[in-house]
């Protein structure tokens, strides 16, 4: 399959891209069939030198079935050569299988910990409850006795 894509050039931290027609299996900066434009992201957006495209050649390659990458499709849409629509990937933010398994394990551990804490609290309440009941029972007769004396 033929792709219309960017091939990176330039120095480190100074990118410069060539818009090329290449086979989808060839490396990004590797062999290509034809150079049909250039893109310099360091220039201002309104600079006419920022995107230089050979519109006729690109139209011919599109007619032959070449598919532009997303970034190149945006550049072509800005030059009114093709239509570009934003892709929809509803699973983009969804975690993968391993992450879902880890989250489930964490939830199970949290539930088990909460149950253990609740059981320990109930145990302590059961141990502390009888003395407090006895103290309440002792206070009640003392209150009755003071009421009788009065």
Question: Explain this structure to me?
Answer:
Helix content is 48%, strand content 21%. With 150 residues, it is an alpha+beta fold. The chain has a domain at 2-78: Ribosomal protein S16 (S16 Ribosomal Protein, Chain: A). A 5-stranded mixed beta sheet has the order 4-3-2-1-5. The chain is elongated, with a radius of gyration of 37 Å. The termini are far apart. The model has no long low-confidence stretch (mean pLDDT 85).
Give the secondary structure arrangement, pairings included:
Elements: E1 2-11, E2 14-23, E3 34-39, E4 51-53, H1 55-64, E5 67-68, H2 70-78, H3 97-149
Parallel strand pairs: 1-5
Antiparallel strand pairs: 1-2, 2-3, 3-4
Question: Brief description of this entry?
Answer:
The protein is α+β, with helices and mostly antiparallel strands. The protein contains 3 helices and 5 strands.
